[in-house]
Prior knowledge:
There is one protein chain. This protein is of the alpha+beta class and 245 residues long. It folds into two domains: 5-181, 2-Layer Sandwich (Gyrase A, domain 2), CATH 3.30.1360; 187-244, Aminomethyltransferase beta-barrel domains (Elongation Factor Tu (Ef-tu), domain 3, Beta Barrel), CATH 2.40.30.110. Helices cover 15% and strands 35% of the residues. It has helices at residues 15-20, 65-79, 130-136, 173-181, and strands at residues 5-11, 35-40, 46-55, 58-64, 85-89, 92-96, 104-106, 115-119, 187-195, 203-206, 209-218, 221-227, 235-237, 240-244. The strands form three sheets. A six-stranded antiparallel beta barrel has the order 9-12-11-10-13-14. The protein has a five-stranded antiparallel β-sheet with strand order 2-3-4-1-5, with helices on one face. Strands 6-8-7 form a three-stranded antiparallel β-sheet, with no helix packed on it. The two termini are 27 Å apart. The mean pLDDT is 96.
Amino acid sequence: MSDARHILRISGSDAKSFLQGLVTNDVDKTRDGLVYAALLTPQGKYLADFFLLADGDDILLDVDASLAEALKMRLTMYKLRADVVIADADIHVHQGTSECPADGYMDPRATALGWRAYRDTAQDGDTTDWTALYVASEVPRTGIELSADSYILEMGFERLNGVDFRKGCYVGQEVTARMKHKTELRKGLAQVTVTGAAQAGDEITANGKPVGTLHSRAGDTALAYLRFDRATGEMQAGEATLTRA
């Protein structure tokens, strides 16, 4: 598998309406399969990204394990008097790029990322180069491209089917909608070609001015967070030369 995941089970008569008022995507879409979404701060900054899946009347929430405890606490804080139970689930995520199995669901972010399934036993024997697939599909990952400073539209969430602009209010919705309708993105995630030695976290410069930061790399291709008005020609990071892919 790629990254360690943790599953939360959201149950109770208010489970769907509770999540609908919090997350960036339309929870009703879970009736058709996996839904990719995020929880934001009131200021529109990233807190966590995850998948949602209907399981009977419950919702399964598939999140990076490093965020699970903090997300559980945040959701509990928002719960107030709603009839909602947030519990850890002993379920394991399986992933693959072969034909989707009967119990699998296609990854809504990008076709190349294949399927996800939720099973009682852990997956083993997966040798997929997930980093290469994420880079090729320009998909940001928790703790690498995605951080507490991230705005989801700069990270490509609209392209990755992670935000619904018609669903109504959720935490951070006003800032996200304003970025969508009233401004042109000046910074964001982009694919770059890398020639030479450079690693994740290296500062990217052009003509001696800071342009952004290098993130995941697979061969001579990488993801970078860039200031677009300065990323127009050759750039440098570490000992490498970069260009927009």
